[in-house]
Write a structure and sequence with these properties.
Layout: H1 9-12, H2 29-38, E1 41-43, E2 53-55, H3 67-72, H4 85-96, E3 105-109, H5 115-122, E4 127-131, H6 135-147, E5 153-155, E6 169-173, H7 179-194, E7 198-203, E8 215-223, E9 233-240
Helix pairs in contact: 2-6, 4-5
Length: 241
């Protein structure tokens, strides 16, 4: 899925260099794997210690190239390298309520690192489709799934444009930060609900989150980094559409 800079991320976006100084070739799987492994550490998000991910840390910085330079290579900023608050809340809820995904075919929309998709797989999902149009995110999702010993299928397909999906559970973390994207996500949610799917949403109520539209299921205090958010703890919730 398309991703932008939620809330204050645009003004805080920083840059970092490839640790080994090897240029990234986004069209090469091997180059993408090397880039991810050299510029992240395999660690657990604070709210979800059961799962490890290749994540950026202060000691292993990933942003050194400017947003413009990455754009010249047609590579979005590395949102897959961070465990966003909404995704952490959603993954925590899934792990604590495994029956939501057990035995079901699941779609993780705008998967990023694959955190929520991995949580669904760990709970016994029949199959998990992790959708993200970022080529590096697709590689990161596979690496992260392998690190957790689960099967997740990354896809670059823009599922917001797809009409014939049959998955019974849809999980959506942190996708309400741009108006146009939020409108498309809401329309997708309504289509999936009409088809009988259950929809779970993790979000810290970003700018374009549709308040009073969904049913609140749980709230969490999620540790985050000030480099990306406006505080060190971000209150995030899980909702049912």
């Amino acid at each position: 899925m398309e991703r932008g800079l939620p809330d204050g991320r645009a003004r805080r976006s920083k840059a970092s260099e490839l640790s080994a100084g090897v240029p990234l070739d986004p069209d090469s799987h091997e180059s993408a794997v090397r880039f991810i492994k050299e510029n992240t550490a395999l660690i657990a998000p604070p709210l979800v210690p059961e799962i490890v991910l290749h994540l950026a840390t202060e000691s292993v910085p990933i942003w050194q190239k400017s947003e413009e330079e990455l754009g010249e290579m047609n590579v979005p900023p590395p949102f897959w390298a961070f465990a966003w608050a909404g995704g952490q809340a959603l993954a925590r809820y899934i792990l604590d309520n495994p029956k939501m995904c057990s035995g079901q075919n699941v779609i993780d929309l705008g998967s990023g690192s694959g955190l929520s998709a991995i949580a669904a797989a760990k709970c016994g999902a029949l199959g998990v489709l992790a959708a993200d149009i970022d080529r590096l995110a697709q590689v990161a999702i596979k690496l992260n799934a392998d690190a957790n010993g689960v099967a997740v299928t990354p896809t670059a397909q823009d599922l917001l444009e797809t009409e014939d999906l049959t998955e019974r559970v849809v999980i959506i973390g942190d996708l309400f930060y741009e108006r146009q994207l939020a409108d498309r996500v809401i329309a997708f949610i309504e289509r999936m609900k009409e088809g009988g799917a259950a929809v779970l949403i993790g979000d810290p109520q970003r700018s374009y989150f549709p308040r009073n539209r969904f049913e609140l299921l749980a709230e969490y205090q999620v540790p985050v980094t000030r480099e990306l958010e406006d505080s060190e703890i971000k209150r995030s919730s899980v909702w049912r559409a």
